[in-house]
């Protein structure tokens, strides 16, 4: 069996996410699996590096699958893009070692979150940003972001209800860049809990609006209590940028 | 009466153009006029710098209107953006001399046309590009573009059927930039005929596909015959970038 790794871009607007919890067929994974199975003439099981929520986008989601087909990767890439809907694109396909697994072997992930901070609509990127009218205090957001990096138990910043799995993660960096009305937050870490990037973003926005202070962050982390953190930012501003192995 | 100049951005995807020929209400001008009339409490007549076709976008369309209202321009700008749909944004509003007219006083216009030249979908800009799979010969397109600049009768490059008005125009520059799969054509001139930028673009694409040669351009101009020029590029790749006075 060959093991094929693909890198996928998608506009998540129309989808219920990468993979649904409730056997909803309207998923990115579902569309890819259907096209792959048809092209290769066998039932394909596609493993992604992780789920993305409904409405969340990807510039570089990674997935892999095993196949008996001998179709060259270049031909597969071309055919995939031909049959996939126009809001899903496969940017590379390559044969990898049989032991490679897109989720289990991932060592680092980068997400970006895009805020449009202006009362004037962002006409062309409105589907890919969170529009916030009131001016955000970006220096305060950067001080809070520094408090949130490192090795921490991020349970307060996740929607995980209970469970035995560890909620400790390492965030290497949270960078916040401002160019005019565009404010982009970049999160790099070894893994992220369910809803974690969106709750971190919502909390940082509350700091930017002076509803919370950078000094509150340590207390929120220690509380392990979702109620202490801020709102969850909408999915449409979030992009999975890359997965490293 | 005050004379107010506004600069407008829009995503033309959902609209029948800036102004429809057939009393179609689904136009950018129609939306703006309705919101302005409601905000200012009087019937507003809005003059645009020129029409844009169905599906065509604008980064800097210019329009003006007369009003008796004393509402400050800053307040008007804020309220306009609040009530307009999210695919229309007003980026500036200022009081100008009573003699200013957005169409009659325009001296230069710039349009850009965006081509995505790759078999892999442009997932995020698909609504704003013309996707062409086969590789385009950009140097040949540049040689043809040079033949098309200057002072010419552009009748062959327009959908004007007949009429007494001059079809002579000056194109100062047609620049073609390529960055990976993105090919952007920029047209600057003193005015453009109906469908002219789209037919110029379609003709240049035929040169890029080696269906026409740069040397054909002089013959097409001289023919004054629409049948000699190339296809009309789809509206969705076209942007009105700026209007100068």
Automatic annotation (TrEMBL), chains A, B:
Q: What class of enzyme is it?
A: isomerase
Protein family (similarity comment) = Belongs to the tRNA pseudouridine synthase TruA family.
Q: Which residues form a coiled coil?
A: none
Could you identify this protein by its name?
Answer: tRNA pseudouridine synthase A
Q: Where is the Pseudouridine synthase I TruA alpha/beta domain?
A: 7-101, 144-245
Q: Which UniProt keywords apply?
A: Isomerase, tRNA processing
What Pfam family is a match, any one?
PseudoU_synth_1
Q: What is the lineage of its organism?
A: Bacteria, Bacillati, Bacillota, Clostridia, Lachnospirales
Mind telling me which SUPFAM superfamilies this protein's record contains? Pseudouridine synthase
Gene Ontology MF terms? RNA binding; tRNA pseudouridine(38-40) synthase activity
NCBIfam families from the xrefs? hisT_truA (TIGR00071)
The organism of origin for this protein: Anaerosacchariphilus hominis
Give the InterPro entries listed for this entry: PsdUridine_synth_cat_dom_sf, PsdUridine_synth_TruA, PsdUridine_synth_TruA_a/b_dom, PsdUridine_synth_TruA_C, TruA/RsuA/RluB/E/F_N
Reaction(s) the record says it catalyses: uridine(38/39/40) in tRNA = pseudouridine(38/39/40) in tRNA
């Amino acid at each position: 069996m060959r093991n094929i790794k693909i890198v996928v871009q998608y506009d998540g607007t129309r989808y219920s996410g990468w993979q649904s919890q409730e056997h909803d067929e309207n998923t990115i994974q579902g569309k890819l699996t259907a096209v792959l199975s048809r092209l290769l003439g066998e039932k394909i099981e596609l493993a992604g590096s992780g789920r993305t929520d409904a409405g969340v986008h990807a510039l570089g989601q990674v997935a892999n699958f095993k196949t008996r087909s001998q179709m060259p990767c270049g031909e597969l890439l071309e055919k995939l893009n031909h049959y996939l809907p126009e809001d899903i694109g496969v940017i590379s396909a390559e044969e990898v070692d049989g032991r490679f697994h897109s989720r289990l072997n991932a060592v680092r992930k980068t997400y970006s979150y895009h805020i449009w901070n202006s009362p004037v609509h962002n006409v062309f990127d409105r589907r890919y940003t969170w529009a916030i009218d009131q001016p955000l205090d970006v220096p305060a957001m950067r001080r809070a972001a520094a408090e949130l990096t490192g090795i921490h138990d991020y349970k307060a910043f996740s929607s995980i209800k209970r469970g035995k799995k560890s909620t400790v993660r390492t965030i290497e960096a949270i960078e916040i860049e401002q160019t005019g009305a565009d404010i982009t937050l970049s999160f790099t870490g070894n893994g992220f809990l369910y809803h974690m990037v969106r709750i971190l973003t919502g909390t940082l926005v509350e700091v930017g609006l002076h509803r919370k202070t950078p000094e509150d962050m340590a207390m929120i982390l220690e509380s392990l209590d979702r109620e202490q953190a801020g709102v969850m930012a909408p999915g449409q501003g979030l992009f999975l940028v890359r997965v490293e192995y």
